Amino acid sequence: MIPVHAFAKRGIEMAQAISVKRQSDEPDVHQIPPLAALIFVLTCLAFGLLLAAISYTYGHLITTLCMVESSSSNAYVPIGTVEPAEDSPPAYTEDGLPKPDDVEVNLVRTQPITASLRTTILHLRARAGFWSRFRGLSVYFVWNFTRSIVVGMLSSASSNPFVMILAAVIAEIVLVCLIRHP
Description:
Elements: H1 4-23, H2 34-68, E1 74-77, E2 106-109, H3 117-128, H4 137-155, H5 161-180
Antiparallel strand pairs: 1-2
């Protein structure tokens, strides 16, 4: 383990070397190769788009589906117009529950589609194709752009984090009101 004074000594030596270099007359010009700059910009752009897509899909789309999905977990499948025969036994036992071996009454235990992230994405893909999760992405970008403008205007007076939090809440409320009542 390196002692702290070794770090301090190296830091002081580096600071002295930088100050000596600045006092010399040679200009400090660093050339970045164009290919390296292009790769860096494209990587940053791809990473930003990936983060936005993940944020939209898992932060907005799936949470909205969770809010609107029905929470009932048991559903009885109706028999329809089939009339039981006169000599058939009753469909229910004395305690009111269906018999386990009864064919006419089906108890279906459904699990919400949004119970798992994977099942939600697979459901979207099965119903509307691979790009289904990105259908509202343009609206999401407009929403975030507008939200950032409103938050910037409201929080520009102070750098206090509580003011920024309050500005974000107010921005969301203002945008919801604008969408509800154009």
